[in-house]
Known about the structure:
Layout (H helix, E strand, L loop, with lengths): L2 H15 L3 H22 L3 H18 L9 H19 L31 H19 L3 H12 L4 H8 L3 H23 L8
Helix pairs in contact: 1-2, 2-3, 2-4, 3-4, 4-7, 5-8, 6-8, 7-8
Amino acid sequence: MSESDRELDWALVQRVQSGDLRAFEVLVNKYQRKIGRLLSRLVRDADEIDDIVQESFIKAYRALGNFRGESAFYTWLYRIAVNTAKNHLIASNRRPSTIRESANDESSETFDETETLSDIETPESVLLSRQIAATVNKAMEELPEELRNAIVLREIEGLSYDEIAEIMNCPIGTVRSRIFRAREAIAARLKPLLGTSGDKRW
Length: 202
């Protein structure tokens, strides 16, 4: 997000805080699809996503009076959306499993499951690309909640480690650990497709 985007959001927030409902509509229109895309990676039931998106914006509107612009609006909003999704899953008795975090690993910076593929599109390569996409999606769905949230925010939404740490309310080292573990789990599922030897990730 550019500095001008952040400033525009803050100006809109201030207008909402002054009673301008149309300014909030602008923020909803700007981020509704992005929040929906985020939640589609966190909630498996597609029918529930719209309700959770709506609930997230309602919570954001109610809490907006306390927003002081110390973080970017979208980071604040993402945190509300992630927490709303988590609460929804817990209330539905679908608490995702959790696992112990491992040590930080800087090698987790390189996540590109397709880098070994040829750029030439043959029927075989197209099929392999589809298989890879399906495998990655399946692997992400099966990750424990905290790992899935972290990898989605990093790889799908492109947020920085600092932003993810703020959204997930945890230290940056924990974010790095979660992303590393998520990438390792996905890599393990991809190795048979890519024909990677056991001592290599990809």
